[in-house]
């Protein structure tokens, strides 16, 4: 299991071994949506905000 | 026979995409994951894309997905769903028109292009009514209009603050749901699963907190859903059904890039697997 720090609140987040690039995770501390933008090095950024035409 | 190659255009790697990728991998199918933020299409140079036997569209953005489908289809690349189906399902007005043409039961809908005409229509329909954006999902920007004051305010706000599309006023009768609606997943002409979405709120999308529970697929439910998906061109679709107390099942909307993270565990059906089966059948039907 790997860890990263939330870019918003700096909380330490544990990521599952099979986490994938472009996956969305939620910071358990501040609740912000984060996107895994790189696996090597493991990097998360605040996920793009929902746009008006997003959906099913 | 050369090995198949599939392209999957996506925005986010959700659990649905993971399930689909797993289904492709179980079958040993070569596929590429393409982020819709990174790709570009040179209309004069389709060659990089022609290696794909088919594309599965999983873009969360209606606009990105729709335009990509138009380009791919123009190049002769089969897609799930097709651009025509996406265009019909992604716009509630076009969906409603297609359903009306096919005689599929749906709520009463009225369309106007100015706040004045919309207000006139609303007053004739009687309160409450629901205002919906023609393009939108996840229960966003829906307005239940209970009286004339609310109608005037919301119409003005949409007309002033929204994009031009918000001045296409899609007005729907308000139907008191029995605390739930039904989400049905159809692949081709087959109904795969059905799920009740329970909510105390009149908006029952799971994106807005609605909870799922398996729904039996009755012959009546199956019939209206099959007619609905045929009316919009067919494919991998999620049909949202309202249960009217007197008129029975009504088709509320049809979704062309469906999520199924609730439906799959509720019904214990591998929907990702079914989608890949359909994708492969499209390739076969296209003679590729």
Detailed description of the structure:
The complex is a heterodimer of chains A (about 55) and B (about 290). Chain A has one domain (about 1-45): Rubrerythrin, domain 2 (Single Sheet). The relative contact order of chain A is 0.25. In chain A, the strands form two sheets. Chain A has a three-stranded antiparallel beta sheet with strand order 3-4-5, with no helix packed on it. In chain A, about 0% of the residues lie in helices and about 40% in strands. Chain A has strands at about 1-5, 10-15, 25, 35-40, 40-45. Chain A is mainly β and about 55 residues long. Chain B folds into three domains: about 5-90 and about 275-285, Rossmann fold, CATH 3.40.50; about 110-175, ATP-grasp fold, A domain (Dna Ligase, domain 1), CATH 3.30.1490.20; about 175-270, ATP-grasp fold, B domain (D-amino Acid Aminotransferase, Chain A, domain 1, 2-Layer Sandwich), CATH 3.30.470.20. Chain B has nine helices and 13 strands. Chain B starts with a strand and ends with a helix. In chain B, the strands form three sheets. Chain B has a five-stranded antiparallel beta sheet. A four-stranded parallel beta sheet of chain B has the order 2-1-3-4, sandwiched between helices. In chain B, strands 5-8-6-7 form a four-stranded antiparallel beta sheet, with helices on both faces. The interface between A and B is medium-sized, with 13 and 26 residues.
Question: What would the keywords be for this entry?
Answer:
heterodimer, A: 56 residues, mainly beta, Rubrerythrin, domain 2, 3-stranded antiparallel sheet, two-stranded antiparallel sheet, 5 strands, 41% strand, B: 288 residues, alpha+beta, Rossmann fold, Dna Ligase, domain 1, D-amino Acid Aminotransferase, Chain A, domain 1, 3 domains, 9 helices
CATH class of chain A: Mainly Beta
Indicate the overall shape of chain B: globular
Kindly report the name of the CATH homologous superfamily of the largest domain in chain B: ATP-grasp fold, B domain
Chain pair forming the biggest interface: A-B, 13 and 26 residues
What share of residues are in beta strands of chain A? 35-45%
Q: Which fold name is given in CATH as the topology of chain A?
A: Rubrerythrin, domain 2
Radius of gyration of chain B: 20 Å
Order of helices and strands of chain B: EHEEHEHHEHEEHEEEEHEEHH
How far apart are the first and last residues' alpha carbons of chain A, in Å? Answer: 32 Å
CATH class of the largest domain in chain B: Alpha Beta
Proportion of residues in helical segments of chain A:
under 10%
Query: How do the strands line up in the largest sheet of chain B?
Result: 11-10-9-12-13
**Total individual domains of chain B:** 3
Mean pLDDT of chain A: 92
> Quick one: how many beta strands of chain B?
13
Could you tell me the number of beta strands of chain A? Answer: 5
Number of helices of chain A: 0
Low-confidence stretches of chain A: none
Cα-atom radius of gyration of chain A: 12 Å
